[in-house]
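agent> Task received from the user: take the single chain below, predict its 3D structure, and emit C-alpha coordinates. No templates, no multimer pairing.
agent> Plan: (1) validate residues, (2) run structure prediction, (3) serialize to C-alpha coordinates, (4) report one or two observations.
agent> Step 1 OK, no nonstandard residues flagged.
tool_call: predict_structure(input=
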Amino acid sequence: MNNFKISFRNLWRNRNTSIVNLIGLTVALTSVIFIAIWVHHELSFDKFNKNYKNIYMIASEWKYSDGKSDFIMETPTPLGPYLKDNFPEVIQSTSFEKQFGGRFLEADNKKFLEQGFAIEPSFFDIFTVDLVSGDSKAITNKPNSILISQQLANKFFGKEDPLNNPITFYTNAEETKQYEVCGVYKNIPDNSSLQYDFLIPLSIDEPNNWFAFGESTFLLLPDEINKANLNEKIAQFYNYDELGFDINWYLHPLKDMHFYSDFQQFVYHPGAIQYVYIFTIAGIFILLIAIFNFTGLVSVLSTTRLKESGIRKINGAQIKEILTMLNKDFVKWVVIAFVIATPIAYYAMNKWLENFAYKTALSWWIFALAGFMALGIALLTVSWQSWRAATRNPVKALRYE
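)
tool_result: status=success, residues=401
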Protein backbone atom coordinates (compact mmCIF):
# COMPACT_ATOMS: atom_id res chain seq x y z
CA MET A 1 0.00 0.00 0.00
CA ASN A 2 2.88 2.34 0.82
CA ASN A 3 4.47 1.64 -2.56
CA PHE A 4 1.21 2.52 -4.28
CA LYS A 5 0.98 5.80 -2.34
CA ILE A 6 4.55 6.66 -3.29
CA SER A 7 3.83 5.82 -6.94
CA PHE A 8 0.71 7.96 -6.90
CA ARG A 9 2.55 10.92 -5.31
CA ASN A 10 5.27 10.69 -7.96
CA LEU A 11 2.71 10.55 -10.73
CA TRP A 12 0.74 13.44 -9.24
CA ARG A 13 3.90 15.49 -8.95
CA ASN A 14 4.34 14.98 -12.70
CA ARG A 15 0.61 14.84 -13.40
CA ASN A 16 0.64 16.59 -16.77
CA THR A 17 3.15 14.16 -18.22
CA SER A 18 1.53 11.23 -16.43
CA ILE A 19 -1.98 11.96 -17.70
CA VAL A 20 -0.82 12.43 -21.30
CA ASN A 21 1.16 9.18 -21.25
CA LEU A 22 -1.60 7.24 -19.52
CA ILE A 23 -4.18 8.43 -22.06
CA GLY A 24 -1.77 7.59 -24.89
CA LEU A 25 -1.19 4.09 -23.58
CA THR A 26 -4.94 3.54 -23.04
CA VAL A 27 -5.78 4.63 -26.59
CA ALA A 28 -2.98 2.45 -27.96
CA LEU A 29 -4.15 -0.60 -26.03
CA THR A 30 -7.74 -0.01 -27.15
CA SER A 31 -6.59 0.11 -30.77
CA VAL A 32 -4.39 -2.97 -30.39
CA ILE A 33 -7.19 -5.02 -28.78
CA PHE A 34 -9.61 -3.96 -31.51
CA ILE A 35 -7.09 -4.91 -34.23
CA ALA A 36 -6.32 -8.23 -32.50
CA ILE A 37 -10.02 -9.16 -32.39
CA TRP A 38 -10.49 -8.25 -36.05
CA VAL A 39 -7.40 -10.19 -37.16
CA HIS A 40 -8.50 -13.23 -35.18
CA HIS A 41 -11.97 -12.96 -36.72
CA GLU A 42 -10.51 -12.92 -40.22
CA LEU A 43 -8.11 -15.82 -39.60
CA SER A 44 -10.81 -17.98 -38.00
CA PHE A 45 -13.07 -18.16 -41.07
CA ASP A 46 -14.67 -21.59 -41.63
CA LYS A 47 -12.77 -23.20 -38.75
CA PHE A 48 -16.02 -23.98 -36.95
CA ASN A 49 -16.44 -26.79 -39.50
CA LYS A 50 -14.91 -29.88 -37.91
CA ASN A 51 -13.46 -31.00 -41.27
CA TYR A 52 -12.52 -27.57 -42.59
CA LYS A 53 -8.95 -28.58 -43.52
CA ASN A 54 -10.21 -31.46 -45.66
CA ILE A 55 -13.14 -29.82 -47.46
CA TYR A 56 -12.63 -28.84 -51.11
CA MET A 57 -14.87 -27.31 -53.74
CA ILE A 58 -14.54 -28.63 -57.29
CA ALA A 59 -14.06 -25.65 -59.56
CA SER A 60 -12.98 -25.14 -63.14
CA GLU A 61 -11.52 -22.57 -65.47
CA TRP A 62 -12.95 -22.57 -68.98
CA LYS A 63 -10.29 -21.40 -71.44
CA TYR A 64 -11.47 -20.18 -74.83
CA SER A 65 -9.59 -19.90 -78.12
CA ASP A 66 -9.62 -16.09 -77.99
CA GLY A 67 -7.52 -16.15 -74.81
CA LYS A 68 -10.39 -15.30 -72.47
CA SER A 69 -11.47 -17.54 -69.62
CA ASP A 70 -14.27 -17.98 -67.08
CA PHE A 71 -14.09 -19.42 -63.57
CA ILE A 72 -17.02 -21.78 -63.03
CA MET A 73 -18.14 -22.96 -59.60
CA GLU A 74 -20.92 -25.22 -60.87
CA THR A 75 -20.19 -28.83 -61.78
CA PRO A 76 -21.86 -31.55 -63.87
CA THR A 77 -24.72 -33.16 -61.95
CA PRO A 78 -23.30 -36.75 -61.88
CA LEU A 79 -19.76 -35.70 -60.92
CA GLY A 80 -20.02 -35.83 -57.12
CA PRO A 81 -21.65 -39.30 -56.85
CA TYR A 82 -19.31 -40.68 -59.52
CA LEU A 83 -16.20 -39.53 -57.65
CA LYS A 84 -17.53 -40.90 -54.37
CA ASP A 85 -18.27 -44.32 -55.91
CA ASN A 86 -15.18 -44.72 -58.10
CA PHE A 87 -12.27 -42.97 -56.42
CA PRO A 88 -11.10 -44.25 -53.02
CA GLU A 89 -9.46 -40.94 -52.16
CA VAL A 90 -12.91 -39.28 -51.98
CA ILE A 91 -14.38 -39.87 -48.51
CA GLN A 92 -17.66 -38.09 -49.23
CA SER A 93 -19.17 -35.76 -51.80
CA THR A 94 -22.14 -33.41 -51.71
CA SER A 95 -23.78 -31.03 -54.13
CA PHE A 96 -26.02 -28.06 -53.42
CA GLU A 97 -27.62 -25.14 -55.21
CA LYS A 98 -27.02 -21.70 -53.77
CA GLN A 99 -30.19 -19.64 -54.00
CA PHE A 100 -28.51 -16.57 -55.50
CA GLY A 101 -30.24 -13.35 -54.58
CA GLY A 102 -32.11 -15.15 -51.83
CA ARG A 103 -35.71 -16.35 -51.73
CA PHE A 104 -38.78 -14.93 -50.05
CA LEU A 105 -40.18 -17.09 -47.25
CA GLU A 106 -43.55 -16.46 -45.63
CA ALA A 107 -45.14 -17.75 -42.42
CA ASP A 108 -47.64 -16.32 -39.94
CA ASN A 109 -48.25 -13.35 -42.28
CA LYS A 110 -44.55 -12.47 -42.12
CA LYS A 111 -42.43 -12.39 -45.25
CA PHE A 112 -38.63 -12.16 -45.39
CA LEU A 113 -35.94 -12.39 -48.07
CA GLU A 114 -33.49 -15.05 -46.88
CA GLN A 115 -30.35 -16.84 -48.11
CA GLY A 116 -30.28 -20.62 -48.30
CA PHE A 117 -29.25 -23.80 -50.10
CA ALA A 118 -30.97 -26.73 -51.74
CA ILE A 119 -28.90 -29.65 -50.46
CA GLU A 120 -28.29 -33.38 -50.63
CA PRO A 121 -28.43 -35.42 -47.38
CA SER A 122 -24.62 -35.85 -47.53
CA PHE A 123 -24.30 -32.11 -46.85
CA PHE A 124 -24.31 -32.91 -43.11
CA ASP A 125 -21.44 -35.40 -43.53
CA ILE A 126 -19.15 -32.63 -44.74
CA PHE A 127 -20.33 -29.38 -43.17
CA THR A 128 -20.96 -28.79 -39.47
CA VAL A 129 -24.61 -27.99 -38.79
CA ASP A 130 -25.64 -28.14 -35.12
CA LEU A 131 -29.30 -29.02 -34.74
CA VAL A 132 -31.21 -27.48 -31.83
CA SER A 133 -34.40 -29.44 -32.51
CA GLY A 134 -35.87 -31.72 -35.14
CA ASP A 135 -34.21 -34.23 -37.44
CA SER A 136 -31.96 -33.54 -40.42
CA LYS A 137 -32.85 -36.95 -41.92
CA ALA A 138 -36.22 -35.51 -42.91
CA ILE A 139 -34.39 -33.89 -45.83
CA THR A 140 -34.02 -37.43 -47.22
CA ASN A 141 -37.51 -38.71 -46.51
CA LYS A 142 -39.72 -35.66 -47.02
CA PRO A 143 -39.33 -33.61 -50.22
CA ASN A 144 -41.28 -30.71 -48.67
CA SER A 145 -39.18 -30.46 -45.49
CA ILE A 146 -37.16 -27.36 -44.58
CA LEU A 147 -34.51 -26.73 -41.95
CA ILE A 148 -34.23 -23.18 -40.63
CA SER A 149 -31.77 -21.31 -38.43
CA GLN A 150 -32.56 -20.13 -34.90
CA GLN A 151 -32.55 -16.57 -36.17
CA LEU A 152 -35.16 -17.33 -38.83
CA ALA A 153 -37.23 -19.38 -36.36
CA ASN A 154 -37.32 -16.39 -33.99
CA LYS A 155 -38.29 -14.01 -36.80
CA PHE A 156 -41.21 -16.16 -37.90
CA PHE A 157 -42.42 -17.90 -34.76
CA GLY A 158 -40.94 -16.09 -31.75
CA LYS A 159 -41.14 -18.32 -28.68
CA GLU A 160 -43.52 -20.75 -30.37
CA ASP A 161 -42.16 -24.20 -31.32
CA PRO A 162 -41.44 -23.94 -35.08
CA LEU A 163 -41.46 -27.70 -35.76
CA ASN A 164 -44.12 -28.91 -38.21
CA ASN A 165 -45.18 -25.33 -38.97
CA PRO A 166 -45.75 -24.50 -42.68
CA ILE A 167 -43.58 -22.06 -44.59
CA THR A 168 -44.38 -20.73 -48.05
CA PHE A 169 -41.34 -20.72 -50.34
CA TYR A 170 -41.38 -18.27 -53.25
CA THR A 171 -39.66 -19.93 -56.20
CA ASN A 172 -40.17 -16.68 -58.06
CA ALA A 173 -42.58 -13.75 -57.94
CA GLU A 174 -45.49 -15.91 -59.11
CA GLU A 175 -44.74 -19.50 -58.10
CA THR A 176 -44.74 -20.80 -54.53
CA LYS A 177 -44.15 -24.11 -52.80
CA GLN A 178 -45.22 -25.26 -49.36
CA TYR A 179 -42.63 -26.59 -46.91
CA GLU A 180 -42.88 -27.92 -43.38
CA VAL A 181 -40.28 -27.10 -40.72
CA CYS A 182 -38.52 -30.33 -39.77
CA GLY A 183 -35.66 -28.90 -37.77
CA VAL A 184 -33.91 -25.85 -36.35
CA TYR A 185 -30.13 -25.41 -36.33
CA LYS A 186 -27.80 -23.00 -34.57
CA ASN A 187 -27.05 -19.80 -36.46
CA ILE A 188 -24.12 -20.14 -38.83
CA PRO A 189 -21.37 -17.91 -37.36
CA ASP A 190 -20.30 -14.70 -39.04
CA ASN A 191 -16.87 -16.16 -39.81
CA SER A 192 -18.25 -18.62 -42.35
CA SER A 193 -17.75 -18.28 -46.09
CA LEU A 194 -21.08 -20.02 -46.66
CA GLN A 195 -24.12 -18.39 -45.07
CA TYR A 196 -27.58 -19.91 -45.09
CA ASP A 197 -30.73 -19.44 -43.03
CA PHE A 198 -32.64 -22.30 -44.59
CA LEU A 199 -31.92 -25.70 -46.14
CA ILE A 200 -34.30 -27.53 -48.47
CA PRO A 201 -33.97 -30.86 -50.37
CA LEU A 202 -32.18 -30.68 -53.71
CA SER A 203 -34.26 -31.78 -56.68
CA ILE A 204 -32.25 -32.93 -59.71
CA ASP A 205 -34.00 -33.31 -63.07
CA GLU A 206 -31.13 -34.85 -65.06
CA PRO A 207 -28.92 -36.85 -62.68
CA ASN A 208 -26.88 -38.46 -65.49
CA ASN A 209 -26.32 -35.48 -67.75
CA TRP A 210 -22.61 -34.64 -67.79
CA PHE A 211 -23.35 -31.36 -69.56
CA ALA A 212 -25.84 -30.09 -66.98
CA PHE A 213 -23.91 -27.61 -64.85
CA GLY A 214 -26.09 -26.36 -61.99
CA GLU A 215 -24.84 -27.43 -58.56
CA SER A 216 -21.70 -26.70 -56.58
CA THR A 217 -19.87 -29.84 -55.51
CA PHE A 218 -17.76 -30.19 -52.38
CA LEU A 219 -15.55 -33.15 -51.45
CA LEU A 220 -14.27 -34.47 -48.14
CA LEU A 221 -10.73 -35.70 -48.76
CA PRO A 222 -8.02 -37.28 -46.58
CA ASP A 223 -5.12 -35.27 -45.17
CA GLU A 224 -2.76 -36.46 -47.91
CA ILE A 225 -4.17 -36.10 -51.41
CA ASN A 226 -2.63 -35.75 -54.87
CA LYS A 227 -4.71 -32.87 -56.19
CA ALA A 228 -3.16 -32.90 -59.66
CA ASN A 229 -3.92 -36.61 -60.06
CA LEU A 230 -7.54 -36.12 -59.03
CA ASN A 231 -7.89 -33.24 -61.50
CA GLU A 232 -6.66 -35.49 -64.32
CA LYS A 233 -9.24 -38.14 -63.41
CA ILE A 234 -12.05 -35.57 -63.65
CA ALA A 235 -10.82 -34.28 -67.03
CA GLN A 236 -11.25 -37.68 -68.72
CA PHE A 237 -15.04 -37.26 -69.04
CA TYR A 238 -14.86 -34.64 -71.79
CA ASN A 239 -13.70 -34.37 -75.36
CA TYR A 240 -12.33 -30.83 -75.38
CA ASP A 241 -11.93 -30.85 -79.17
CA GLU A 242 -15.69 -31.28 -79.53
CA LEU A 243 -16.41 -28.71 -76.83
CA GLY A 244 -14.26 -26.13 -78.58
CA PHE A 245 -12.55 -24.99 -75.39
CA ASP A 246 -10.41 -26.41 -72.61
CA ILE A 247 -11.50 -26.95 -69.01
CA ASN A 248 -8.91 -26.82 -66.24
CA TRP A 249 -10.37 -28.63 -63.22
CA TYR A 250 -8.99 -27.88 -59.78
CA LEU A 251 -9.78 -28.29 -56.09
CA HIS A 252 -10.43 -25.11 -54.11
CA PRO A 253 -9.81 -25.65 -50.35
CA LEU A 254 -12.50 -24.32 -48.05
CA LYS A 255 -9.79 -23.05 -45.67
CA ASP A 256 -8.54 -20.70 -48.43
CA MET A 257 -11.95 -19.58 -49.65
CA HIS A 258 -12.21 -16.43 -47.52
CA PHE A 259 -8.92 -14.89 -48.68
CA TYR A 260 -8.16 -16.53 -52.00
CA SER A 261 -11.49 -17.33 -53.65
CA ASP A 262 -11.91 -17.02 -57.41
CA PHE A 263 -15.66 -16.69 -56.81
CA GLN A 264 -16.28 -13.48 -54.90
CA GLN A 265 -20.04 -13.61 -55.51
CA PHE A 266 -20.17 -17.07 -53.93
CA VAL A 267 -18.35 -16.19 -50.70
CA TYR A 268 -19.90 -14.28 -47.80
CA HIS A 269 -17.76 -11.19 -47.05
CA PRO A 270 -14.60 -12.22 -48.95
CA GLY A 271 -11.45 -11.02 -47.23
CA ALA A 272 -8.00 -9.82 -48.30
CA ILE A 273 -4.96 -11.28 -46.57
CA GLN A 274 -2.92 -8.13 -47.25
CA TYR A 275 -5.22 -6.17 -44.93
CA VAL A 276 -4.51 -8.69 -42.16
CA TYR A 277 -0.77 -8.08 -42.63
CA ILE A 278 -1.23 -4.30 -42.77
CA PHE A 279 -3.38 -4.08 -39.64
CA THR A 280 -1.13 -6.48 -37.72
CA ILE A 281 1.95 -4.37 -38.48
CA ALA A 282 -0.01 -1.19 -37.69
CA GLY A 283 -1.09 -2.61 -34.34
CA ILE A 284 2.50 -3.49 -33.42
CA PHE A 285 3.72 -0.01 -34.37
CA ILE A 286 0.92 1.67 -32.40
CA LEU A 287 1.84 -0.34 -29.33
CA LEU A 288 5.58 0.29 -29.71
CA ILE A 289 5.11 4.04 -30.15
CA ALA A 290 2.91 4.24 -27.06
CA ILE A 291 5.38 2.20 -25.01
CA PHE A 292 8.37 4.27 -26.12
CA ASN A 293 6.48 7.43 -25.18
CA PHE A 294 5.74 5.88 -21.82
CA THR A 295 9.44 5.27 -21.20
CA GLY A 296 9.78 9.05 -20.84
CA LEU A 297 7.45 8.92 -17.85
CA VAL A 298 9.38 5.99 -16.42
CA SER A 299 12.60 7.96 -16.80
CA VAL A 300 11.08 10.87 -14.84
CA LEU A 301 9.76 8.58 -12.12
CA SER A 302 13.07 6.76 -11.85
CA THR A 303 14.93 10.06 -11.45
CA THR A 304 12.61 11.21 -8.67
CA ARG A 305 13.27 7.98 -6.78
CA LEU A 306 17.06 8.07 -6.97
CA LYS A 307 17.34 9.08 -3.33
CA GLU A 308 15.05 6.26 -2.23
CA SER A 309 17.01 3.80 -4.39
CA GLY A 310 20.32 5.01 -2.91
CA ILE A 311 19.08 4.62 0.68
CA ARG A 312 17.75 1.13 -0.07
CA LYS A 313 21.06 0.06 -1.60
CA ILE A 314 23.03 1.41 1.38
CA ASN A 315 20.69 -0.61 3.63
CA GLY A 316 21.56 -3.76 1.70
CA ALA A 317 18.94 -3.94 -1.04
CA GLN A 318 20.06 -5.86 -4.12
CA ILE A 319 19.82 -4.59 -7.69
CA LYS A 320 17.00 -7.02 -8.54
CA GLU A 321 14.98 -5.68 -5.59
CA ILE A 322 15.45 -2.10 -6.81
CA LEU A 323 14.46 -3.20 -10.33
CA THR A 324 11.35 -4.90 -8.97
CA MET A 325 10.40 -1.77 -7.02
CA LEU A 326 10.77 0.53 -10.04
CA ASN A 327 9.16 -1.78 -12.59
CA LYS A 328 6.29 -2.49 -10.22
CA ASP A 329 5.23 1.14 -10.48
CA PHE A 330 5.26 0.95 -14.24
CA VAL A 331 3.31 -2.33 -14.33
CA LYS A 332 0.56 -0.81 -12.19
CA TRP A 333 -0.10 1.89 -14.74
CA VAL A 334 0.00 -0.49 -17.69
CA VAL A 335 -2.63 -2.57 -15.86
CA ILE A 336 -4.74 0.54 -15.23
CA ALA A 337 -4.53 1.48 -18.93
CA PHE A 338 -5.49 -2.08 -19.89
CA VAL A 339 -8.47 -2.10 -17.52
CA ILE A 340 -9.71 1.14 -19.08
CA ALA A 341 -9.03 0.00 -22.66
CA THR A 342 -10.68 -3.43 -22.46
CA PRO A 343 -14.33 -2.37 -21.98
CA ILE A 344 -13.91 0.39 -24.58
CA ALA A 345 -12.58 -2.10 -27.15
CA TYR A 346 -15.26 -4.65 -26.23
CA TYR A 347 -18.03 -2.09 -26.66
CA ALA A 348 -16.63 -0.81 -29.97
CA MET A 349 -16.22 -4.34 -31.34
CA ASN A 350 -19.74 -5.32 -30.32
CA LYS A 351 -21.12 -2.25 -32.07
CA TRP A 352 -19.16 -3.18 -35.20
CA LEU A 353 -20.44 -6.78 -35.14
CA GLU A 354 -24.03 -5.55 -34.86
CA ASN A 355 -23.76 -4.57 -38.52
CA PHE A 356 -23.72 -8.26 -39.45
CA ALA A 357 -26.64 -10.64 -39.53
CA TYR A 358 -24.52 -13.32 -37.89
CA LYS A 359 -22.36 -12.50 -34.88
CA THR A 360 -19.19 -14.16 -33.65
CA ALA A 361 -18.56 -14.42 -29.91
CA LEU A 362 -15.66 -12.34 -28.60
CA SER A 363 -13.07 -14.61 -26.99
CA TRP A 364 -11.67 -13.48 -23.64
CA TRP A 365 -8.20 -14.80 -24.46
CA ILE A 366 -7.74 -12.19 -27.21
CA PHE A 367 -8.02 -9.44 -24.60
CA ALA A 368 -5.65 -11.31 -22.29
CA LEU A 369 -3.13 -11.85 -25.10
CA ALA A 370 -3.17 -8.16 -26.01
CA GLY A 371 -2.61 -7.23 -22.36
CA PHE A 372 0.30 -9.64 -21.93
CA MET A 373 1.86 -8.44 -25.18
CA ALA A 374 1.63 -4.83 -24.05
CA LEU A 375 3.09 -5.69 -20.67
CA GLY A 376 5.90 -7.79 -22.15
CA ILE A 377 6.93 -5.20 -24.75
CA ALA A 378 6.65 -2.45 -22.15
CA LEU A 379 8.89 -4.25 -19.67
CA LEU A 380 11.50 -4.86 -22.36
CA THR A 381 11.56 -1.21 -23.41
CA VAL A 382 11.64 0.39 -19.96
CA SER A 383 13.86 -2.07 -18.14
CA TRP A 384 16.90 -0.18 -19.39
CA GLN A 385 15.81 2.99 -17.56
CA SER A 386 15.11 1.01 -14.42
CA TRP A 387 18.47 -0.77 -14.73
CA ARG A 388 20.35 2.52 -14.97
CA ALA A 389 18.58 3.82 -11.88
CA ALA A 390 19.11 0.58 -9.97
CA THR A 391 22.84 0.30 -10.77
CA ARG A 392 23.69 3.94 -10.10
CA ASN A 393 26.24 4.61 -7.38
CA PRO A 394 24.17 5.32 -4.23
CA VAL A 395 26.73 7.89 -3.00
CA LYS A 396 26.31 9.95 -6.17
CA ALA A 397 22.55 9.58 -6.01
CA LEU A 398 22.43 10.93 -2.42
CA ARG A 399 24.99 13.65 -3.13
CA TYR A 400 22.79 15.21 -5.84
CA GLU A 401 19.69 14.82 -3.75
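agent> Step 4: summary for the user.
The CA atoms of residues 77 and 209 lie 6 Å apart.
agent> Done.
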